[in-house]
């Protein structure tokens, strides 16, 4: 039985990760400051002897004894990470330093939840791990993008300098049950709007693309990466290469919910990437991983979840 620390464990992805780790017999310490996460996401785990919850901000040092660390703590949706941008950068950078310092002291393997945002508004399509990105360092998304890029730098420097066992995962847009209904992300917005009979808000012309990965597929990739052989550090893209425009996504949500909602067009936010799609060749070859859940099937699960809470 491994002792596993999950930072950001009460969030959307973190709570699904805790579920999977508990189910396979790990001893899980979930650390969260509840900035965007919720106790409701992990309430069903609270009675289990293999699960422990600690309220803590990763910007501060943390002294615990663990074998493995999944570092997920960070607000992930644009409206959440732009709400307090200084805190977002601190969480990515100070949080990474503290978790790397902890990993160094206890000789734990550590995985970083990085992001496709390190590619910025990409000029290479689809994005491969070797692409260095096209990121604005001073825009409204920079607190998140540059914070995550700096965290990757810290991971590789701790690896080179202190020989830490690191795993860097570049997560592409992921959706599913337990997404925050007010996080402003496109899947949660469209589903909540559709269920309330409100019009679906398309930003810009709606022809920008994203690739949506269902949460179960993503967590499988994350666990495989953590368990992969020691010399494989990544960075590795994990996401679903199926690419959709926001109009296509909106039309699918309208069809699956049976709503009478229409599309309304609103201004495109600053620095909004025009297209995003992962090249997952590396994950396929090194992790024997690829996504299995089709967008429509994942959306049906997500719609059922939002129906139960909205
Ligand atoms: P989320 O907002 O649901 O979860 C983040 C969790 O971190 C929350 O529970 C929040 O309370 C916690 N947190 C934030 N700041 C903290 C701090 N200073 N100390 C302790 N806890 C803190 O978001 P998510 O979608 O679950 O994302 C999890 C991770 O995956 C993030 O690091 C995010 O950047 C990364 N990621 C997610 C996606 C996606 O599509 N969901 C894509 C790329 C990367
Ligand atoms: N740290 C931590 N838990 C530990 C060990 C370290 O939170 O178990 C923090 C510590 O506060 C430090 C950071 O991790 O600021 C980086 O640690 P490292 O040992 O790399 O650097 P140093 O302590 O030499 O600055
Ligand atoms: N978007 C949209 N309507 C919404 C919310 C988002 O058209 O109600 C667009 C947004 O401009 C972006 C895409 O959907 O082009 C994905 O946005 P999200 O915030 O989910 O993720 P990210 O931009 O970080 O990939």
Topology record:
Blueprint: E1 3-7, H1 12-23, E2 27-32, H2 39-42, E3 51-55, E4 68-71, H3 78-83, H4 85-106, E5 109-115, H5 142-162, E6 166-171, E7 174-175, H6 186-195, E8 200-203, E9 209-211, E10 213-214, H7 215-227, E11 236-238, E12 243-245, H8 246-257, E13 263-266, H9 281-287, H10 295-309
Parallel strand pairs: 1-2, 1-4, 2-3, 4-5, 5-6, 6-11, 7-10, 8-13
Antiparallel strand pairs: 9-12
Helix pairs in contact: 1-7, 4-5, 6-8, 6-10, 8-10
Question: How would you describe this protein?
Answer:
This protein has 310 residues and is an alpha/beta fold. The chain has a domain at 3-175 and 213-239 and 277-292: NAD(P)-binding Rossmann-like Domain (Rossmann fold, 3-Layer(aba) Sandwich), CATH 3.40.50.720. The protein has helices at 12-23, 39-42, 78-83, 85-106, 142-162, 186-195, 215-227, 246-257, 281-287, 295-309; strands at 3-7, 27-32, 51-55, 68-71, 109-115, 166-171, 174-175, 200-203, 209-211, 213-214, 236-238, 243-245, 263-266. The strands form four sheets. The protein has a seven-stranded parallel beta sheet with strand order 3-2-1-4-5-6-11, sandwiched between helices. Strands 7-10 form a two-stranded parallel ribbon. Helix 5 (142-162) links the parallel strand 5 (109-115) and strand 6 (166-171). The longest helix has 22 residues, at 85-106. The radius of gyration is 19 Å and the shape is globular. The protein binds nicotinamide-adenine-dinucleotide (NAD) and uridine-5'-diphosphate (2 copies). The site of nicotinamide-adenine-dinucleotide has 29 residues, from helix 1, helix 4 and strand 5. Nicotinamide-adenine-dinucleotide is lined by residues 7-8, 10-14, 32-37, 57-59, 72-76, 91, 95, 113, 115, 171, 173-174, 180.
């Amino acid at each position: 039985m491994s002792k596993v620390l999950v930072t950001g464990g009460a969030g959307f992805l973190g709570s699904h990760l805790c579920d999977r780790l508990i189910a396979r017999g790990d001893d899980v310490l979930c650390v969260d400051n509840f900035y965007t996460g919720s106790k409701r996401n992990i309430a069903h785990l609270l009675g289990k002897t293999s699960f422990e919850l600690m309220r803590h901000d990763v910007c501060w040092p943390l002294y615990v004894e663990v074998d493995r660390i999944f570092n997920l703590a960070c607000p992930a949706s644009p409206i959440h990470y732009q709400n307090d941008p200084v805190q977002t950068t601190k969480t990515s950078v100070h949080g990474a330093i503290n978790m790397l310092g902890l990993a160094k002291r206890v000789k734990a393997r550590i995985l970083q939840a990085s992001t496709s945002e390190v590619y910025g508004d990409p000029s290479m399509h689809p994005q491969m791990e070797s692409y260095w990105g096209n990121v604005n360092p001073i825009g409204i998304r920079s607190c998140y993008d540059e914070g995550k890029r700096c965290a990757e730098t810290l991971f590789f420097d701790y690896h080179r300098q202190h020989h830490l066992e690191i795993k860097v995962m570049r997560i592409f847009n992921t959706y599913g049950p337990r997404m925050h209904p007010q996080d402003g992300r496109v899947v949660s917005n469209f589903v909540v709007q559709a269920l309330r009979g409100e019009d679906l808000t398309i930003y810009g012309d709606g022809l920008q693309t994203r690739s949506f990965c269902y949460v179960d597929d993503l967590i499988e990739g994350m666990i495989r990466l953590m368990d992969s052989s020691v010399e494989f550090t990544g960075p590795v893209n994990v996401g679903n290469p199926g690419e959709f425009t926001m109009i296509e996504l909106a039309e699918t949500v309208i069809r699956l919910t049976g709503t009478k909602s229409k599309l309304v067009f609103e201004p495109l936010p600053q620095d909004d990437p025009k297209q995003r799609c992962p090249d997952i060749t590396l994950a396929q070859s090194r992790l024997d991983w690829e996504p299995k859940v089709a967008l429509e099937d994942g959306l049906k699960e997500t719609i059922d979840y939002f129906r139960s809470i909205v």
